[in-house]
Design goal:
With about 140 residues, this protein is mainly alpha-helical. The chain contains 6 helices and no strands.
Length: about 140
């Protein structure tokens, strides 16, 4: 359910000139690393069209709450992951890659993912009684 919100938020930031879909992810998230040097070539567009080469999530560890800067810590935790193929070489869905865009959204916009969605998508469309699911992302910051 949260993926359309992520995509909308990233496209809004692109239209506002705050990022370009052809930007490498590391331009906005310098702490993003994988155990495969090709990670430096991954662009935001490749995440959108599922050609990043990143693996999918095996275990979100939903039973472990995450606090304070959880989105960034989640991205940093990817450092031991290896690409399945060179970015752009093949296509497969990766929740891990798409989840990373939540952190990217926060860093580029300066707002938490939830606050960005509320302020820039839900309220402007009149969805004032709507909210994100309790666990929209594995890194939801608990208050």
């Amino acid at each position: 359910m949260s993926r359309p919100f992520v995509a909308t938020a990233i496209v809004q930031l692109a239209k506002a000139g705050k990022l370009d879909l052809s930007d490498p992810v590391t331009k906005h998230l310098p702490w993003f690393r994988l155990a495969d040097e090709r990670y430096r070539d991954i662009t935001i567009r490749q995440i959108f069209n599922h050609t990043s080469g990143m693996p999918d999530v095996e275990d979100y560890e939903g039973d472990k709450p995450r606090f304070n800067n959880a989105a960034e810590r989640y991205v940093r935790s990817m450092a031991s992951e290896r690409l399945l193929w060179a970015p752009g070489a093949d296509r497969a869905y990766s929740n891990m890659a798409f989840d990373m865009l939540g952190d990217l959204n926060g860093k580029v916009s300066g707002l938490s993912f939830e606050d960005y969605i509320k302020t820039n998508i839900l309220e402007p469309t009149g969805l004032n009684n709507s909210s994100l699911p309790e666990r929209a992302f594995p890194f939801r910051i608990l208050r």
